[in-house]
TrEMBL record:
Pfam families, A to Z: Ribosomal_L29
Gene this chain is encoded by: rpmC
Stretch list, region Disordered: 56-77
Gene source species: Nitrospina gracilis (strain 3/211)
InterPro entries: Ribosomal_protein_uL29 (IPR050063), Ribosomal_uL29 (IPR001854), Ribosomal_uL29_sf (IPR036049)
UniProt similarity note: Belongs to the universal ribosomal protein uL29 family.
Gene Ontology cellular component terms for the protein in this record: cytosolic large ribosomal subunit
GO molecular function: structural constituent of ribosome
SUPFAM superfamilies: Ribosomal protein L29 (L29p) (SSF46561)
Keywords: Ribonucleoprotein, Ribosomal protein
GO BP annotations, alphabetical order: translation
PANTHER family: 60S RIBOSOMAL PROTEIN L35/50S RIBOSOMAL PROTEIN L29, LARGE RIBOSOMAL SUBUNIT PROTEIN UL29C
Protein name: Large ribosomal subunit protein uL29
């Protein structure tokens, strides 16, 4: 999943996608431990997608926090 695709999702969709990916990643780790994983390379892509979603969520939260707070005034001498 590319960042462009992630940015087009709504906040709720991003949260749902993140939860789904984390659950699927957990299942893949379990399959890896039991030796029944078919495609171990998929784990790498899932980790990166999870990181992309978390990064965008953090960026959105920071921009919302900055928009809600007034800018600090610089002392005039």
């Amino acid at each position: 999943m590319k960042m462009k695709e992630i940015r087009e999702l709504s906040e709720k969709e991003r949260e749902e996608k993140l939860a789904d990916l984390e659950e699927e990643y957990f299942n893949l780790k379990f399959q890896l431990a039991t030796g029944k994983i078919e495609n171990p390379g998929r784990m790498k892509h899932m980790r990166r997608d999870i990181a992309r979603l978390k990064t965008l969520n953090r960026e959105m939260k920071q921009s919302a926090d900055q928009a809600g707070q007034p800018k600090a005034e610089t002392p005039s001498s």
